[in-house]
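User: Here's a chain of 199 residues. Predict its fold as tokens.
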Amino acid sequence: MLANTEFYFLRHGETDWNLQGLAQGLKDVPLNENGRTQAYAARAATASISIGTICSSPLSRALETAKIIQEAAACPIEVIDDLKECSWGDFEGQGKGDWFDSWKRGSLQATGVEPYDFFLKRALRGINRALAYPGPVLIVAHGGVYWAVQKYGALGEEFDLPNATPVRHRPPRDDFPWWETTVLQPQQADSDNREGIVP
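Assistant: Prediction complete.
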């Protein structure tokens, strides 16, 4: 089960492979220039909230995003291996076509491919490990990792979270017996002056 505590989740900023619709998986594709601009906008959106710990995937697209957020949050970053994206083996670098649908149905058998159900459980393990740190915790990870939040938080139909969109998650309570999610609207950051936050 998803740990019963408030947290924030942020998918990393855009990469060139995101732009091309390619499956990244464990391939360490860096942020592109727009992805960095998105990360600075997310930093502006989260600057007014209290963050106790940032927990990040070790892949550079997530970790660079986390470090940009940390500049304003002034809190530690903990790197958690289980927050990595799914391994898609030889399918990394390809478009998400028929193989991707087969993978989600559990019928894709290929070397180096992490089974869908196994991946979601591994991602949940990483999320719950993150939520054991002093909070509120901001998790900076991947679109696939967020599917575990959607599944184990019973948030409804699975969808791809947009890049660098911070989402607040509040656990069920007496007056609202479901997980409550709120998108924090990113503000445009000044890409030419990244030392400051531009409202």
